[in-house]
Amino acid sequence: MIRFGTLDWGIEEKKAIEDLVSPENPQLSMGKKVYEFERKFAEWLGTDYAVMVNSGTSALITAIKTMQTHNMINELHTTALTYTADWNALDVCNVPYIPHDVGNDFVVHANLNDVEDFYSDWLSVDLLGKPCRIGNDIDDASEALGSELKGTKMGANALIGTFSFYVAHQITTIEGGMVVTDDKTLYETMLSIRDNGRICTCSPCTLKTTGICQKRSRSQAIERRWETKTQGYNFKPTEFQGALGLVKMTKIDKICQRRHEIFKWYEAELGDLKEESDEYIVPLAYPVKVDHAPTALEIMEKQDIECRGMFPAYSSVYNNAYRISQEYILIPSHQDLSDEDIQSIIENVNQCR
């Protein structure tokens, strides 16, 4: 079967895990591998800081909670068409939010007639790799790792960017996510929120890497590792995820290039999502309009092509988002597809249009 996503599991990934567990007393909880992955990811993306967490949803919660901690938001505007993790994260953080309808290119556009909304706080979403041009507060670039707008990678164009490394995404650590920023104060808050709100913000943690805490004082009444400064969560990833992330960083440019090539092939043959002159799109998946989505999914499955339905609309009140959610399906776009796979996908999906 042509799968919707790829585990991208090869010799390098297997060796990274084998090397991790081979010592007599291996470090498996968050440690050096995670810290090194964070450093390399930030360097590649073009941000000063990156904080790895255990999922893309955790990344969203961390980003929202960080802005709340610094009293930077009262409510957020966002999209009415997306994976539900965005709305769930807002609900978990108890942040009021206002969904907005999308255009035919699946992303929200600025309503220049609505000055209040235009200058409000936004959780923007780069759906299916398409850059969203509104908002510079939190950018959910989970589906747009490698996509660019005017030469800047998505996620690096906002105060805080978030990513998911789930299986179907551009790179995968099986589960995992990342929060990025250029702001040191926000970065230190992210570190605290990731680790139950603890006061410790050293990265890498010297206690874990050397066995000595540089800030620890025997005169303190409370053990420093138990002291907290804000509400937080246990969002820490494992060294397994960090080790896999480091392998993916050796492949990331080739992965993005191949996914972009596949996007351009689909764009030329199917034309449902297009790239503007100032964009570079590296998609999670490609959307196609079909005659009847449930039937199309069944037909594609019978041809051994795994597809997905379109992401849900927040409500049928948002006309375009709701129409798209009902009329489109998502076809595979991952880097392990062969040219023959892509041609087969195109031929079969055209039978459903």
In short:
It contains 12 helices and 13 strands. It has 353 residues and is of the alpha/beta class. The chain is globular.
List keywords for this structure.
2 domains; alpha/beta; 353 residues; Aspartate Aminotransferase, domain 1; Aspartate Aminotransferase, domain 2; three-stranded antiparallel sheet
Which superfamily, in CATH terms, is the homologous superfamily of the largest domain?
Type I PLP-dependent aspartate aminotransferase-like (Major domain)
Spell the H/E element sequence. HHEHEHEHEEEEEEHHHHEEHEHEH
Largest sheet: 5 strands, mixed
Number of domains: 2
Number of helical stretches of at least 4 residues: 12
| Unreliable parts | none
CA radius of gyration is 21 Å
Description:
The mean pLDDT is about 95. With about 350 residues, this protein is of the alpha/beta class. The two termini are about 20 Å apart. The longest helix has 18 residues, at about 250-270. Helices cover about 35% and strands about 15% of the residues. It contains 12 helices and 13 strands.
